[in-house]
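FIELD: query
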Amino acid sequence: MATKQRSCPGPIHRRGFLEAGTLAMGGLALGDLLRLRAEASDAGQTPTDTSVILIWLQGGPSHLETYDLKPEAPIDYRGECRPIETNVPGISVCEHLPEHAKVADKFNLIRSISHGFANHAGGAGRFLSGYNPLRPLDPLAQFPCLGPVVSKMLEGRRDPAMPRYVGSAKNVYGGGSASLGAAYLPFVVGSDPNDPKFAVNNLSLSGGVKDRLDDRRTLLDAFDSVRLDVDRSGVVDAIDKYNQEAVNLLTSDRAKEAFDLSQEDPKLRDKYGRHKWGQRALLARRLVEAGTSFVTMQMQNPGIAGGIGNWDIHAVNGHLFEDTRARLPVFDRAVASLIEDLYDRGLDKKVMLIVSGEFGRTPRINSQKGTRSGVMQPGRDHYPAAMSVLVSGGGMQTGQVIGSTTSKGERPQDRPLDPNDLLATIYQHLGINYREMVPDNSGRPVPLIPHGTPIAELL
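FIELD: result
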């Protein structure tokens, strides 16, 4: 399963930027975006008020240095990190995750998920769509992935004053909307929430522009009775509805406030960590609390000293254990604070938190000469045959370890699970029928996931 390459460039960084007054998604104006979404909307069901936060660890974190340590394995498998006990007897995590250890009763660790795609794009596409990618090296998924699917399936069933799907990038590398089209890509917030000048420009209209939009909305409302008489077919009303939704989002005080981190207690912001990862985690909580259905926040470079990049820690890219000692304390504070915050605010039934990357890392350490260091150093390569996923909230029973891997962390041993089982669990939490049909790229109807059932331990 390991990738035998001397150098891995890692996931490509993609950035999206939203211009004031227009939500640019693949070149679409906001009114066009809403119109396309409505054409593909689902009628009928009204799901419960639930949300999902996906903390995406681009590059693939090592399960053996985070949530599935093997202290009894040979040294060339177990490495330097040691497990520590948590507040739940029998659950251990890496020694560099002490804040996780304090909130282990509020999360579950799934240690037995696996799939078969050992490159970044293919692994992410497989994990997030449930389908084997046709072109594993393609940076865009060939099947609709989790976030865009949620955006489509909840069309018209959530409050239009908040974007349904928010991401820190236009696409997860290897993910995307595929056959669903650009209408279901996320509302992108790619800038650093830790920046004192952080703002989401298209929600920060000047007073004059907002007054003009409000005036237009008032004028349109004044014609309501006339339209009812003139257009009994509802066509004019439908067209105006799309524009009205665009105005609602652009002028929504609630949306603007949700993105305003300055409203948070500075002590809470400090607790999350004054860096990109910590403030993205806090922003995710604010968004779901305000009504966003799905938030993807990528944790790559946290924006601190030390040059920590993504989680793709081959030996040629860096020293596995030096990177772990620098990376995990930053990650630890952000994720543990998010978990505790969700529970403190009573959001633990509404919000399901998923923390994962596209795969795990090779159980056996692979030492090579570092590209920058010029010396031999330890690393681990891509490895989809075993990985760990943290799941919290969602109204589920917590404080569990679900599944296990073999003594060296090479493959699932107990309770082997597929990424599709996790996808089915997520969709069920959101009130989405995971057997619902959507068109593939050829127009043929296919189910949201081809197989998989919700994980019973999480229900």
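FIELD: remark
Residues 30-205+254-458 form a domain with the Alkaline Phosphatase, subunit A fold (CATH 3.40.720).
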